[in-house]
Amino acid sequence: MQVECPACGHANLFWGKREGDIVIEHFGRRCQGLIEGGSGRQQCDFRFRFKVCGECGAENDIAARRCHGCQMLLVDADDKLKDALKLKDAKVLRVSGMQLEATTNGRGLPRLKVTYHDEDGASLAEWFALETPAQRRAFSAAFLRDHLRAPASGWQPMSPDEVIEEQQRLRAPDFVVGRKVGRHFQIRDKLFDYQGRFRKAAEAS
Ligand SMILES: [Zn+2]
Ligand SMILES: [Zn+2]
After folding, report:
1. What domain range includes position 7?
2. For the chain, what is the domain count?
3. Which of 28, 31, 121, 142 is deepest in the core (most CB within 10 A)?
4. How many whole angstroms from 64 Cα to the centroid of ligand 2?
5. C-alpha 31 to ligand 1 mean position (Å)
6. Are residues 110 and 127 in the same domain?
């Protein structure tokens, strides 16, 4: 299947899934296009899927151990989970389901509510507003970037209902970490593309 790079326009051949004209899902991580640089032809550096280095902000492959920008060791998902499980005020869910709802906040404004739950019935939720262009940009950065099955597809929903109608474009995280703030839990981290020890342990049990 062809997936066009938003940076250089190269038509990448990735495994994926299409519905009509829409690319619903693909598994490409980095653009395969070659572009002319100062030192000859180089691979385009656009990444569809990446993890951001906490030290320098560089985008790294999701499987990278060390940052290509600053050489620091990247925080491992297993370590993140281990640290979270040690905290008394944290809630760690191994996500078995994700539910989307169009709701309203206390002032009657439309909100998208996303609830994650595990097999034991524990849950964590987050809310998003999509009324203004700034709110939609924030939603893209905080939610769509990680949740889209076809990253960088340029989909920009205008309302909670539109997100719900096309939720086949979205994937659920493997783990969600919440921290207690006052009497409520706030989502602090969501882990995707997780293939670590915790999953192996959970599947063996
Ligand atoms: Zn490219
Ligand atoms: Zn770095």
Report:
1. 2-74
2. 2
3. 31
4. 11
5. 5
6. yes
